[in-house]
Design goal:
alpha/beta; Rossmann fold; seven-stranded mixed beta sheet; 30% helix; globular
């Protein structure tokens, strides 16, 4: 998909603030420094619609981005960032859980994991949580450019095995540097729009 129009609509902390539209939504979930903002910016060919930060844990709200006037990308707070208080982390978790379980517009969740490392405990919990609620998942393994191509299969197997990957979900190796996986990500997302 070629994106000509993309705007942030609202940063919501409660259900009352969700956009009152019936258009499809695709949520993006992942650890604080996994590259969610870079993923969004790469897909929509923008440098900084989704703000990337050198300080992980910056996204503390549900950020709704309207894409082409047709659907929303919903960037959810990153998880697993240690420098944020437990109370704050629990608050973010609640915001996301409410959204995930009570928003009929949500069609699929892009779950981002760092391809270089074995999935963290939080990555595994997130995937299991999404599967428990029968959500369609597009698993995006980020930072593929940091691994030699010859080792990609090994890393893919490691991730899939660690999380108990459901073969009905999509698995995409992605790099915001080389644009690897951009087309595949759009193809996976477009199935839900």
């Amino acid at each position: 998909m070629k994106v000509h129009q993309a705007d942030i609509v609202i940063s919501a902390v409660s259900k009352a603030q969700y956009p009152p539209t019936a258009i499809p939504e695709i949520a993006l979930a992942g650890r604080s420094n996994v590259g969610k903002s870079s993923f969004i910016n790469t897909l929509i060919d923008r440098k900084s619609l989704a703000r990337t930060s050198s300080k992980p844990g910056k996204t503390q709200t549900l950020n709704f981005y309207l894409i082409e006037g047709k659907f929303h990308f919903v960037d959810v707070p990153g998880y697993g960032y240690a420098k944020v208080s437990k109370t704050e982390r629990n608050k973010w978790g609640k915001i996301f859980e409410t959204y995930l379980t009570e928003r009929p517009q949500l069609q699929a969740v892009v779950s981002l994991m760092d391809m270089r490392h074995e999935p963290s405990k939080e990555d595994i919990q997130m995937y299991n949580f999404l599967k428990y609620y029968n959500k369609s998942v597009i698993l995006v393994a980020t930072k593929a450019d940091k691994i030699p191509r010859g080792k990609w299969n090994k890393h893919e197997s490691m991730i899939k095995k660690s999380i108990g990957f459901d073969e009905e979900d999509d698995f995409i190796m992605f790099s915001s540097v080389t644009k690897q996986g951009k087309e595949a990500a759009w193809q996976a997302i477009e199935k839900y729009l």
